[in-house]
Amino acid sequence: EHDGDFALEHFSIERDHAWLLPYVQKALALRPDMTLFASPWSPPVWMKEPRRYNGGSLRDDPEVHRAYAEYLLRFVRAYRELSVEIAQVHVQNEPNSDQKFPSCLWTGAGMRDFIRDYLGPRFAEADEACEIWAGTIERGVRLGWEEDSWKNHTYKDWAHTILADAEARRYVAGVGYQWNGKGALAETHASWPDLPIIQTENECGDGNNCWDYAFYVFQLMWDYFNHGTVAYVYWNMILPPGGDSTWGWKQNTMITVDADAQAVVYNPEYFVMKHFAHAVQPGAKFLPMRGHHGAFSLL
Hints:
Layout: H1 20-30, E1 36-38, E2 48-49, E3 57-58, H2 62-80, E4 86-90, H3 108-125, E5 131-137, H4 159-163, H5 166-169, E6 172-177, H6 185-191, E7 197-199, H7 211-225, E8 229-232, E9 238-239, E10 255-258, E11 263-266, H8 268-277
Parallel strand pairs: 1-4, 4-5, 5-6, 6-7, 7-8, 9-10
Antiparallel strand pairs: 2-3, 10-11
Helix pairs in contact: 2-3, 7-8
């Protein structure tokens, strides 16, 4: 956070050495073939307007856009120097949500222009192998004829706006969807059948960790995989009893750990994920089914 540091003379990932990097490095020691993607929640606040972590937008200034593209490139390379390979950069986590935690608002057109004019060319110039993805998009198709519904949060506003621009499209390796972004899955896959899609954040419930919600997660996975999704990301792995997040939202988790009692509970969604993960390895192929066993409905 050094105002006006367009040359990024003060760039550093020192903050990540406290918790994030040791956690990732230990995970890689257990599973070195994991594929990692990065999704920023907020640029440095001096690049934003207003200048705060929660909400705001990237300043409409070419010098800022060039600096942010360089910032993301340096992040990828700083991690690589520590043997942590970032395979994909998704431009923004939930770009259409003004959150009370770190966030940044983008439009589909703004993301398209940033990829086309700044991030894509900078990665190409640097011969950077890390892929650029249009993600992580949390809005989908809003159906109905209520006032202005046809204008907002549709496939057209995000995936189509970005991918229909031929110059932007050549830099985009895939699309990341989460939450209500699932509403745009069918149209995205139909429009761009060869483009990979990943689900970037599982819907995380209310902390009750019940079997009904586990069935809902199973149905989410079925829906994503039947619409061209090549990876599904669960959120959260481990939480304390009650599932309190750092901003007070009770959430589901695969595993509950009571540190005081030294007790571990494997929740229903752990078994949903295990059902897939213990048998399905990277590179496996999805074979859709036809007939009355080919669909799953939550009753």
